[in-house]
Design brief:
Its EC number is 1.11.1.7. Belongs to the peroxidase family. Ascorbate peroxidase subfamily. Belongs to the peroxidase family. Classical plant (class III) peroxidase subfamily. It is found in: Secreted. It contains twelve helices and two strands; from the N terminus they run αααααααβαβαααα. It is mostly helical. A two-stranded antiparallel ribbon has the order 1-2. α1 packs parallel to α12 and α10 crosses α11. The protein is globular and about 60 Å long. The termini are far apart.
Length: 321
C-alpha cells in the first residue's frame, strides 16, 4: 500500500468517525473556523515548544485528557486549582503538560478572548502530543465548554493500575466505551512512564507474578529493587517508550507488560482478541491501531461534554471565572 493511499484511508476513516460522533453532541470539527481560525495552530505550536524542551509533556497531555474525561466528562475540571479538586486526587499526582495548556490559553486569550475553552485546548493538545511522538493525528471535534466543579472524591471513576479486566470494562462502560475502546485507549501507554510502587508487588522474590516473562524479571528488579525508591519511573513500553507505536501490545504478548492491569488485557479472553488485532501483518497493524486510536479518542473526548450555554469559557484554565 502506498503512503499517499494509506494517508487518504486514514483521513477518510477519521473524518467519518469525527463526523459521526459529533452528531448530537454539540461539538464539530472546525468549530472555531470563524470565531478563532488560528486556534488549532496556536495550541499545536504551544505543545511543540514545550515538547522540544521536555518530551514527557506528550504522555502527560494524553494522560491528563483521559483523566479529565473520566471525571465529570471532558470539561477541563482537572485543571482547576484548590483544596479538594481533582488535581489533589492520588490518581492525578505528577500531572505533566499543564504549562503547555497555560501557554496556549494565554496566547488564545490575546487573539480571541473568551472564545476557546480549556477543555478544547486539552483535547487538541492530546492529539498533538501523539503526532509529536510519531503517531498519526485525527480530526478533533471542538465546541466544548469548561466545567465549574472539580472534586477529588470523584476521581474514583478512574481505572487503577491493579484493577481486573472486568472492573476496567465496567468503568469504561459507565462512560459509554466498550471493550475495544478499552484496549485501544490503554494503548496510549506506548508512551510514558509509571512509578515502581504501582507494580513492585508483581516482583516478589519468592512468589513473582507468573504472567511476567521470567527473562524480564531481573531487569524489572534492577529498576525497582525490593526496598528501593517507589517513586522511580519506568517506561510503560519496554523497547520504545518515547514512540507512539504498537510495541506496547507486543510486550503484552511476551509477558512484558509493566502494570498488571495492562498485562491482563492479554491473559483475559474477553480482551485478548482486541490486542491481537494490533499484532497482525507488519505495517497494517500500525495503520489499524492509529485509525482505531483516533476513533476511540474522538469517542472518549465527547463524554458528557458541556456545550451551548452549559458551563463557561474560563479566562484562566486553573480557576473558574
Amino acid at each position: 500500500m502506498g503512503c499517499a493511499n494509506e494517508m487518504q484511508i486514514v483521513l477518510f476513516l477519521l473524518l467519518a468517525s469525527a463526523t459521526t460522533l459529533a452528531l448530537g453532541q454539540g461539538t464539530r470539527v472546525g468549530f472555531y473556523s470563524g470565531s478563532c481560525p488560528r486556534a488549532e495552530s496556536i495550541v499545536q505550536a504551544a505543545v511543540r515548544s514545550r515538547f522540544q524542551s521536555d518530551p514527557t509533556v506528550a504522555p502527560g497531555l494524553l494522560r491528563m485528557h483521559f483523566h479529565d474525561c473520566f471525571v465529570r466528562g471532558c470539561d477541563a475540571s482537572i485543571l482547576i486549582d484548590g483544596p479538594g479538586t481533582e488535581k489533589m486526587a492520588g490518581a492525578n499526582s505528577r500531572l505533566r503538560g499543564i504549562e503547555a495548556i497555560d501557554d496556549a490559553k494565554k496566547q488564545l486569550e490575546a487573539v480571541c478572548p473568551g472564545v476557546v475553552s480549556c477543555a478544547d485546548i486539552l483535547a487538541l493538545a492530546a492529539r498533538d502530543a501523539v503526532v509529536l511522538t510519531s503517531g498519526r493525528g485525527w480530526l478533533v471535534p471542538t465546541g466544548r465548554r469548561d466545567g465549574t466543579i472539580s472534586l477529588s472524591s470523584e476521581a474514583s471513576s478512574l481505572p487503577g493500575p491493579t484493577e481486573s479486566v472486568d472492573s476496567q470494562k465496567q468503568k469504561f462502560a459507565a462512560k459509554g466505551l466498550n471493550g475495544q475502546d478499552l484496549v485501544t485507549l490503554v494503548g496510549g501507554h506506548t508512551i510514558g512512564t509509571t512509578a515502581c510502587r504501582f507494580f513492585q508487588h508483581r516482583l516478589n522474590n519468592t512468589n513473582p507474578d507468573p504472567t511476567i516473562d521470567p527473562a524480564f524479571l531481573p531487569q524489572l528488579r534492577s529498576l525497582c529493587p525490593e526496598n528501593g525508591d517507589g517513586s522511580t519511573l519506568v517506561g510503560l513500553d519496554n523497547g520504545s517508550p518515547n514512540t507512539f507505536d504498537t510495541s506496547f501490545y507486543a510486550n503484552l504478548r511476551s509477558g512484558r507488560g509493566i502494570l498488571v492491569s495492562d498485562q491482563m488485557l492479554w491473559t483475559d479472553a474477553s480482551t485478548k482478541s482486541f490486542v491481537q488485532r494490533y499484532l497482525g501483518v507488519r505495517g497494517l497493524q500500525a495503520l489499524n491501531f492509529n485509525v482505531e486510536f483516533g476513533r476511540a479518542m474522538v469517542k472518549m473526548s465527547n463524554i458528557e461534554v458541556k456545550t451551548g450555554t452549559d458551563g463557561e469559557i474560563r479566562r484562566v484554565c486553573s480557576k473558574i471565572n
